[in-house]
Write a structure and sequence with these properties.
The structure holds two protein chains of two kinds. Chain A is an alpha/beta fold. Chain A contains 14 helices and 22 strands. The chains are: A alpha/beta, B alpha/beta. The interface of A and B includes residues 425 and 439 of A.
Chain lengths: ~500, ~450
């Protein structure tokens, strides 16, 4: 949170990238940027409009005013803020949360195009670690550029790409835009659904987000429409610097279908900062939503300094009969991850799925899992969670399966496995099962183990070095979840696993 | 109403009386326990380990407490014979919280073995009692430990010296007997020295149809290479509230098996904390619960693997009927460096009616990598196909259900090593499922 404004660095003038012609120059530029980041952190000035640090009612009003929001939304924010004031930061997670000074954060930052003041300096030094990482990820050079902090053209590209999509999408009546835009253009829809799944009183961070959320995306799929392409927030968050308190609202009307991807799929090296987002999903009758996340925020350095505090509330409400919601997440980043993508199965015969791979290394801490609340009849939920801990990290699965008294025929299967790499890490499982109905079948199983010596020996025997062998085995272990991801995401997620676990062997 | 206050007042008003009717070793911890209890208060349901049981509510009514140690007019030996056919035991009685010294078993125990009242033990072997009393059940964190330590005046002391094996099962029948609602604070201390072996059977019964509130703390010290089997059978009634905290400390290569069966009860909360502090130790926890009506059973376990090469197993099975509530929260903690730990945790539950509630929470907390840990939990109901199969063959629906329930609970019963007790328990469980009160034949209540 300290160096909050540094984030704005990522937004730059589009002309900048254009100047760099050849690939080699690009490479140099990347190296230079990378090195700079590692040695000095971001110090370049960008003309960014940042409001005063601190949080009070005036700040909430100011954010609302800057975004030209209607009166009802301001009221919503203020109610949330007043509620937040009465609450204490929860401490039940299996986490050591650093003290968060909420007054030291600036809650609104509007980056405008800034001019880069200093060009590339030394070109001969390379940070081999970062190059290796990029190589493994197979990210094209433009993206490397984008990811190393000069995201302008890539971002601008991405925006324009989105705009093209927008036209295509609107032909079918699909709305895909930022939530601020949605507030202006479709106030009725937003008003109807905002806070209906995650009310502002839900929890401490949800209240905070409801008070100060800056941006995020809004998706509306009309009745009977299958969204022809995957929707993604890939670069948008980088561009608009809304990473801190974004708010996503997805509404899928009767018989609709959408697959939504979220997160950054490459190492976005942020400084230690707070990320408290809300994702709300409404699934109506016969509709289906797939939500995939590959989260790779900056996890802090090998000593456990810095890193993102990822404190997110995600929830889907399966309102209609035969509705379907699937959460898939690959969590490799963040210093602290505290997130439970959940499902409320109200519609009869609704189905919910949760697939998760959480990798922690060094001093990372993850407390993640899901909640499946069965309310309708013949509802079904599946939970597959795979935890991998290495270094000195702590990785916890925490999940709740609740079967309400009227949820006849509810069915749940949960399986959470943990893999330990190294003797100083921890893997924990905290499943809760509350069954209030006699026709329910709820099953939970979990195992914890390390990679077997025999498997490693087998690979070694066949000429595969230990580090690669571990990568292979881990990927095999996580396959159940990764297979659920859309193709491009799956490839990157797989590579990400290897990167995240680099250096854990030997 | 502030439930704690009446207990604090009781203690302050009767401090002298409590001390006078107890022993020095027990009195020594009272002051601290009082301070701890005043500070902690009863745990609310927001406290993770008390999530499923409302403690304050159970302690709110005004119960009588027998601080003066008035002797109740009853001969338990005549009134109650908890027979286990084909099993000859050394039979002892605890009347409420007092050891019944008037009827001791005729067969002598092996030399050096002590089974007596805790108060007497504290006078006769003060160094042994002082070294152990309150060492495991710390008062600083658990309000029930503090409350019990503050008020407990007597209890049971079992001591098996080095290398002695007690062949005959030591059976202790805990009788609740009173003409008014009564609170009982019982304290049990079990010490097994190096290489000692013993088998203990605790049976809980209530003789009178009164409101009872029992707090019990059991501290078990299992020395190196010792073997202990401890059985607890609760067959009380719906007006009984039982809060039992059991603490076990195991040294190297010791084997402790704890069996807990709740066959009939009102509100039961069993907390079992096992600390494996010596390598090669093995612990087995088995629990069987059969609950109906409004009964409430909450088993809460913690197995703390402090060192490597230890094994722990847990199997808890619940059959929930009517509007009963069951909860199981088991936590296995494998500490940093406790390599080659093997741990299994299993909880299976059968909900037989729509109103029955089951909460299951099998947890693993692991800080070492060379371990094999697994847990599993299921909540379900009877197999329709199996029921259909039996009905096809002329077995009535009720009988078929009974058979299935019996088979389900059978897995825990089969784990009992003592054959006579196994048969006895099978019989009791069957009677229980048939809706008969599971009283022993020969008991005053059954006649």
């Amino acid at each position: 949170m300290r160096e909050n404004s540094n984030k704005d660095e990522k937004t730059r003038s589009g002309a900048e990238a254009g100047r760099i012609g050849t690939e080699e120059e690009k490479n140099r530029f990347v190296r230079e940027m990378a090195q700079k980041k590692y040695e000095y952190g971001f110090t370049t000035d960008v003309q960014t409009e940042i409001i005063e640090r601190g949080l009070n009612e005036d700040v909430v009003r100011l954010i609302s005013a800057k975004k030209e929001e209607p009166e009802w939304l301001l009221e919503f924010r203020l109610k949330a803020f007043r509620y937040w004031l009465t609450q204490k930061q929860p401490s039940w997670g299996h986490l050591t949360l650093p003290e968060i000074d909420y007054q030291a954060i600036s809650y609104y930052a509007d980056p405008t195009k800034g001019m880069k003041k200093d060009g590339p300096k030394s070109l001969d030094e390379i940070d081999p670690e970062l190059m290796k990482t990029f190589d493994k990820l197979g990210i094209p050079l433009e993206e490397r550029l984008a990811l190393s902090g000069t995201a302008v053209d890539a971002v601008m590209d991405s925006v324009s790409v989105k705009t093209t999509f927008k036209e295509k999408l609107s032909e079918r009546g699909i709305i895909f835009c930022s939530i601020s835009e949605a507030v202006r253009e479709y106030p009725d829809l937003v008003r109807q659904y905002l806070g209906s799944v995650v009310p502002y009183r839900d929890n401490y961070f949800a209240a905070l987000n409801s008070a100060v959320f800056s941006d995020g995306s809004f998706v509306y799929i009309p009745k009977g429409v299958r969204c022809p392409m995957e929707l993604s927030t890939y670069f948008r968050i980088n561009a608009r610097n809304t990473g801190q308190f974004e708010r996503t609202l997805i509404v899928c009307d009767d018989g609709g279908y959408v697959s939504y991807l979220e997160g950054c799929t490459a190492p976005m090296r942020d400084e230690n900062q707070l990320h408290a987002a809300i994702v709300e999903i409404v699934v109506n009758e016969n509709a289906e939503v797939k939500y995939s996340t590959v989260q790779n925020w900056y996890p802090g350095d090998a000593e456990g300094r810095g890193g993102v505090l990822n404190l997110v509330t995600k929830r889907g409400h399966l309102r209609g009969a035969n509705s379907k919601l699937s959460w898939t997440q690959v969590e490799t980043g963040s210093a602290i991850t505290w997130k439970y993508p959940s499902c409320i199965l109200t519609g009869d015969n609704s189905q919910a799925e949760f697939y998760s791979v959480a990798v922690t290394n060094n001093f990372q801490q993850a407390d993640t899992g899901t909640k499946m609340i069965h309310i309708g009849r013949n509802t079904k939920s599946t939970i597959i969670s795979k935890g991998i801990s290495a270094g000195r990290s702590q990785n916890s699965y925490r999940g709740l399966v609740r079967v309400a008294p009227k949820a006849d025929g509810a069915r749940n299967y949960s399986s959470c496995d943990s893999l330990l790499l190294g003797s100083d890490c921890g893997a924990h499982t905290f499943p809760y099962m509350d069954v209030h109905n006699d026709t329910a079948i709820v099953e939970h199983e979990a195992t914890t183990s390390k990679i077997s010596e025999e498997q490693l020996f087998y690979c070694n025997q066949r000429g595969i070095p230990t580090e690669e062998a571990v990568g292979l085995i881990v990927n095999g272990y996580a396959k159940d979840v990764i297979n659920k991801l859309p193709m491009e995401f799956a490839v990157e997620a797989q590579k990400l696993l290897n990167v995240s676990l680099e250096g854990t062997v030997g | 109403m502030n439930s704690e206050q009446q207990y604090l007042d009781l203690f302050t008003a009767n401090r002298e009386l409590i001390d006078r009717n107890s022993a020095v070793a027990m009195n020594a911890l009272r002051e601290q326990a009082f301070a701890d209890f005043a500070r902690l208060g009863f745990p609310t349901r927001k406290v993770e380990r008390y999530k499923y049981t409302d403690v304050a509510e159970a302690f709110a009514p005004d119960y009588g407490v027998n601080l003066k140690r008035v002797e109740f007019a009853v001969n338990p030996y005549e009134a109650f014979r908890c027979d286990v056919p084909n099993l000859s035991t050394s039979l002892y009685f605890m009347l409420n919280d007092a050891f019944w010294e008037k009827a001791l078993p005729s067969a002598a125990l092996p030399p050096g073995v002590v089974v007596c009242s805790l108060r007497r033990a504290a006078q006769e072997f003060p160094e042994k009692v002082e070294a152990c009393y309150g060492r495991l059940a710390r008062t600083g964190k658990d309000a029930l430990n503090a409350l019990n330590t503050m008020l407990a005046q007597d209890g049971l002391f079992v001591y098996v010296p080095r290398g002695v094996a007690v062949e005959r099962t030591i059976q202790v029948v805990n009788l609740l007997r009173s003409d008014v609602g009564l609170m009982v604070n019982r304290r049990v201390l079990v010490v097994l020295e190096e290489g000692a072996q013993a088998r203990l059977l605790f049976c809980d019964h209530a003789m009178d149809d009164r409101d009872f509130l029992t707090t019990q703390i059991v501290e078990v010290f299992a020395g190196e290479n010792s073997h202990l089997e401890l059985y607890e059978l609760e067959e009380t009634h719906v007006k009984n509230r039982r809060f039992s905290n059991m603490y076990v400390d195991q040294q190297r290569d010791s084997v402790v098996s704890l069996y807990n069966f709740t066959l009939h009860n009102g509100l039961t909360r069993n907390r079992t904390d096992v600390t494996l502090s010596g390598e090669g130790a093995e612990t087995n926890l088995y629990g069987g619960v059969i609950a109906d009506k409004e009964q409430h059973v909450d088993n809460n376990t913690l197995i703390d693997h402090r060192v490597g090469r230890c094994t722990s197993r847990q199997l808890y099975k619940y059959v929930m009927d009517d509007r009963s509530t069951g909860a199981f929260a088991g936590r296995v903690l494998v500490r940093h460096g406790a390599q080659q730990t093997v741990s299994e945790e299993r909880n299976a539950n059968l909900c037989a009616t729509p109103e029955a509630r089951m909460y299951s929470q099998p947890m693993l907390e692991i800080y070492a990598d060379d371990v094999k840990c697994s847990h599993g939990s299921t909540v379900g109901q009877m197999d329709e196909q199996a029921l259909f199969y039996m009905r096809q063959r002329g077995i009535s629906l009720d009988e078929a259900r009974m058979l299935l329930k019996f088979a389900f609970a059978g897995e825990v019963i089969d784990a009992i090593s003592l054959e006579a007790l196994r048969d006895r328990l099978r019989h009791l469980v069957e009677k229980r499922f048939r809706g008969e009160l599971s009283r022993c034949s020969g008991c005053r209540m059954c006649k």
